[in-house]
Specification:
This is Fibronectin type-III domain-containing protein. There is one protein chain. The protein is mostly beta strands. The chain has three domains: 16-119, Immunoglobulins (Immunoglobulin-like, Sandwich); 131-249, Sandwich (Immunoglobulin-like), CATH 2.60.40; 253-401, no CATH class. It is 1% helix and 49% strand. It has one helix at 247-250, and strands at 27-30, 36-40, 45-50, 56-65, 74-79, 83-87, 95-103, 112-119, 134-136, 140-142, 147-155, 165-177, 189-193, 196-204, 212-222, 230-238, 256-257, 260-266, 269-273, 285-294, 302-306, 309-315, 325-338, 341-355, 360-364, 370-378, 394-397. Strands 17, 20, 23, 24, 26 and 27 form a six-stranded mixed sheet that branches. Strands 1-8-7-4-5 form a five-stranded mixed sheet, with no helix packed on it. A hairpin with a 2-residue loop joins strand 18 and strand 19 (269-273). The protein is rod-shaped and about 140 Å long. It starts with 26 loop residues before the first strand and ends in a 9-residue tail after the last strand. The relative contact order is 0.11.
């Protein structure tokens, strides 16, 4: 007896007749009901295990679609054991399989048995993206457009290929705790990449001024109608504390108020001198607030001058470098409380700006009047409002010669 057995995985057989020997050997179609277990390893791969035939020499597996071409049998594989693993071209189809068994027999008329077709139960993997398959790429800052772009990337559902994804719809971004309302945010765009997809979210750079929390989502549509669409969802938290290496965040420093101030002058002309905050470089400008003050204990400050000319000198806030500028507030001061529990406030304040590389400021003030001053370094135009309410007021007075007792 001679039996031709296909060995190529992509070879097709059209029923057992393709194997029929030329010496009159017949194939027997059997109605034996054998125990069979079928399993989808992924959307395209099926594993079949059946009970053993004690007379079997080789098992030849074939499969076909149930609905479209049930008689068009395709080669699944050959095995010496009653099990096989093979791939199907389309997970949207229902399949059936049959087995041609080459028997160990001395009877030339009883050497091949054909088991009747059996339907394969469809148990496709869940069409869902797990959390460990979703990643958020590091944001990219575009200074020309003033935007920050974030990519949310995901892989295909486990067991599915790119061809199994029909497309995407409903891409959206929702601000949960941000400066921009929802209707001002641009619509995200979806890009299909090999093995998955990604969502491109472009946001205004000013959203990094404070902590911003976003929720993004997009619906993934399967090609098979038997599967349900899946919503890819991800939360995003954006702020310069988390993204300190972004260029925009490197300069996103809140105003820094200096501690060390020196003031001198005469005849109401006052000069205030300061040093810039350390580690931040030159600021845009200095915001200076001054005016009549109420007493409050402060850090090291130096003020000098004569005849109303006052100079104030300060050292910059530590750890921030040179600011963009100093915001200086000064004015006549008033004292409250009794020693040692005293504080100063600026009663009638004036505010000026000094260049970021300035170290002192000269002013013309009234003699024999209590004054207070506050100096804050500004590092970014988008965050330029100093917290004067929590910064101590530095008091000083220009004493005229007539009030000095000899």
């Amino acid at each position: 007896m001679y039996v031709e057995i296909p060995i190529c995985a992509n070879q097709r057989l059209y029923g057992w007749r393709a194997m029929r020997p030329t010496h009159g050997t017949d194939a027997e179609t059997t109605d034996d009901v054998l125990t069979v277990r079928t399993e989808y390893l992924d959307a395209h791969t099926i594993h079949i295990v059946m009970s053993r035939n004690p007379q079997a020499f080789i098992y030849i597996f074939e499969f076909s679609t149930v609905s479209t071409s049930p008689d068009d049998w395709m080669f699944a594989g050959v095995s010496i054991t009653p099990e096989i693993t093979f791939t199907t071209p389309d997970p949207c189809r229902d399949y059936q399989f049959r087995v041609l068994v080459v028997l160990r027999s001395t009877n030339p008329q009883h050497q091949i048995a054909v088991l009747r077709p059996r339907a394969i139960q469809v148990t496709l993997p869940e069409f869902a993206v797990e959390t460990d398959q979703i990643t958020v790429e590091h944001p990219v800052y575009n200074s020309a457009e003033g935007t920050v772009t974030i990519y949310v990337k995901w892989k295909n559902p486990r067991g599915y290929a790119d061809a199994d994804i029909y497309g995407y719809e409903g891409a959206a971004v929702y601000p949960i705790q941000c400066l921009s309302p929802e209707d001002e945010l641009p619509t995200p765009t979806v890009e299909q990449v090999t093995g998955g997809g990604r969502l491109k979210v472009s946001l205004p750079a000013e959203m990094l001024e404070g902590k911003c929390r976003l929720w993004v989502e997009v619906r993934m549509l399967p090609r098979c109608v038997r599967l349900e669409p899946f919503s890819v969802q991800q939360s995003l938290e954006l702020d310069c504390e988390r993204l300190a290496d972004l260029d925009i965040c490197k300069h996103e420093v809140s105003p820094q108020c200096t501690d060390v101030i020196d003031v001198w002058g005469s005849n109401g002309n006052v000069t205030v001198m300061w040093a810039p905050p350390a580690e931040f470089g030159d600021p845009l400008y200095y915001h200076i607030r001054y005016g009549a003050a109420e007493m409050q204990c402060t850090d090291v400050i130096d003020v000098w001058g004569s005849n109303g000319n006052v100079t104030v000198m300060w050292a910059p806030p530590a750890e921030f470098g040179d600011p963009l500028y100093y915001h200086i507030r000064y004015g006549a001061a008033e004292m409250q409380g009794v020693p040692p529990f005293v504080s100063w406030t600026i009663a009638s304040r004036r505010e000026v700006k000094a260049a970021g590389d300035a170290k002192s400021l000269s002013m013309q003030l009234d003699e024999d009047t209590d004054y207070g001053i506050q100096i804050c370094a500004v590092y970014n135009e988008q965050r330029k409002k100093p917290k004067f309410g929590v910064v101590g007021v530095t008091p000083f007075i220009c004493t005229s010669c007539k009030t000095i007792r000899m």
